[in-house]
Every structure is written in C-alpha cells, then in structure tokens.
C-alpha cells in the first residue's frame, strides 16, 4: 500500500471543509465547552511560553450563545470569560471551528484549565491593548466570588 492512499487531495479536502461549514451547528445556547488555547493560533500559543506547552493541553471554558445564519452557513456566539473575549454575530465561530476545537464538553484530568487565577499568573493571555482593563475586571470577579 502506498502513502498516497492515506492523503486526500486538496480538492476533496476543500469539499469536505465546505460540507462541514454548511451543516447545522447543533449546539444549544448556554452549552459549555472547553477550547484548546492552540485554537487561537500556534505561533501566539508558542510565544506564551507556558510550562510544558508542547505536552500539556491548556483549555479555556467557553459558553455558547445564539446561532446565526451567515452566507449559507451558521455561526454561533461564544464567550470566553477568563480571557474577556466574545465572538458574536459574523465574528462568531463557524461550524468548522466548532467541529475542530469546540466539542470538548467535559473536563479531563490531564487538562490545565485556564481560569481567572491562571490568567492572573499569565497576563500575556489577554489582549495587549486592553490588558490592564481586563486584569481589573478579572480581579474584581475573583474578589466578588469570595
């Protein structure tokens, strides 16, 4: 058997991606999922220099919102409270992103959960333009939960 049989052509891969994007997302509003930090971009993730970042899975809690139709496909709103990020409307996640990264619904033991306390340790996780504002928000949220 040759190695060729293991790989799909770019044409068939593009068709598969298009088909996934057109499928209904099928996630309820309010559903919680855990997204790998790598989904924000591999270069950004590598530059964070988190401990064991090549081995460990750093997961961020996301809360799904409403589903919207957009250009023949669907997008779903999602809020990542620990990172102070929301993706809403046309900026929401398409079905391909949800399919690849957003279907982890239960926390696993070997994951490292990126929560408010973790973000305070690694503030470079936050958008650099709003970092000081977001850090104040996170500290207030921690204080109010005590």
What would you say this structure looks like, in words?
The protein is an alpha+beta fold and 146 residues long. It has one domain. It has helices at residues 10-22, 42-47, 95-101, 116-121, 131-144; strands at 32-36, 57-70, 73-80, 85-87, 93-94, 111-114. Strands 1, 2, 3, 4, 5 and 6 form a six-stranded mixed beta sheet that branches. A hairpin with a 4-residue loop joins β3 and β4. The longest helix has 14 residues, at 131-144. The protein is globular.
Largest sheet: 6 strands, mixed
Total of helices: 5
The percent of residues in helical segments reads 25-40%
Percentage of residues in strands: 15-25%
Number of E strands: 6
Mean pLDDT rating: 90
Tally the structural domains. Answer: 1
What is the H/E string? HEHEEEEHEHH
Radius of gyration: 17 Å
Instruction: State the shape.
Output: globular
Give the N-to-C terminal Cα separation: 61 Å
Helix-strand category: alpha+beta
Low-confidence stretches: 1-5
Summary tags:
146 residues; alpha+beta; six-stranded mixed sheet; 32% helix
What are the SSEs and their pairings?
Layout: H1 10-22, E1 32-36, H2 42-47, E2 57-70, E3 73-80, E4 85-87, E5 93-94, H3 95-101, E6 111-114, H4 116-121, H5 131-144
Parallel strand pairs: 2-6
Antiparallel strand pairs: 1-2, 2-3, 3-4, 3-5
């Amino acid at each position: 058997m040759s190695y060729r049989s293991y790989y799909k052509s770019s044409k068939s891969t593009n068709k598969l991606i298009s088909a996934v994007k057109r499928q209904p997302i099928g996630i309820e509003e309010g559903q919680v999922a855990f997204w790998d930090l790598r989904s924000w971009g591999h270069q950004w993730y590598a530059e964070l220099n988190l401990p064991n970042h090549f081995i460990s899975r750093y997961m961020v809690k996301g809360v799904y919102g409403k589903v919207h139709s957009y250009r023949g496909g669907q997008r779903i709103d999602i809020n990542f409270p620990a990172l102070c990020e929301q993706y809403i409307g046309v900026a929401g996640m398409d079905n391909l992103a949800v399919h690849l990264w957003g279907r982890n619904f239960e926390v696993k033991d070997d994951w490292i959960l990126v929560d408010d306390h973790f973000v305070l340790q690694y503030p470079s996780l936050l958008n650099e333009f709003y970092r000081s504002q977001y850090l104040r928000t996170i500290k207030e949220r921690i204080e109010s939960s005590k």
